[in-house]
Amino acid sequence: MTSEERRELEATLARLRQEHRDLDVAIEALHKMPGADLLQVQRLKKRKLQLRDRISFIEDQLTPDISA
């Protein structure tokens, strides 16, 4: 992996982590609202899980393999 590719992955990772945190805040705010749209909450949670999977994938790419 080139240093440019690594920088791009790290930038993408930072953006995804921020979006994940933003979804946490949005989900919490919706839960506190009376008459919250449960379908909207489910969609946000699903997006959050997708982000978590993508974050894990990128973290794995950035972590060098360690031979046993």
Overall geometry comes to: elongated
How many distinct helices? Answer: 2
Structural class: mainly alpha
The fraction of residues assigned to DSSP E strands is under 5%
Q: What value does the Rg take, in angstroms?
A: 16 Å
- What is the tally of beta strands? 0
Total domain modules? 1
Q: Please, what is the oligomeric state?
A: single chain
Task: Outline the low-pLDDT stretches.
Answer: none
Q: What series of H and E elements makes up the topology?
A: HH
How far is the first residue's CA from the last residue's CA? 21 Å
> Mean pLDDT score, rounded?
93
Query: What is the makeup of the main sheet?
Result: none
Outline of the structure:
The chain has 68 residues and is mainly alpha-helical. The chain has two helices and no strands.
Structure description:
The chain has 68 residues and is mainly alpha-helical. It is 81% helix and 0% strand. α1 packs antiparallel against α2 (38-62). The radius of gyration is 16 Å and the shape is elongated.
Notable characteristics:
68 residues, mainly alpha
Layout of secondary structure:
Blueprint: H1 3-32, H2 38-62
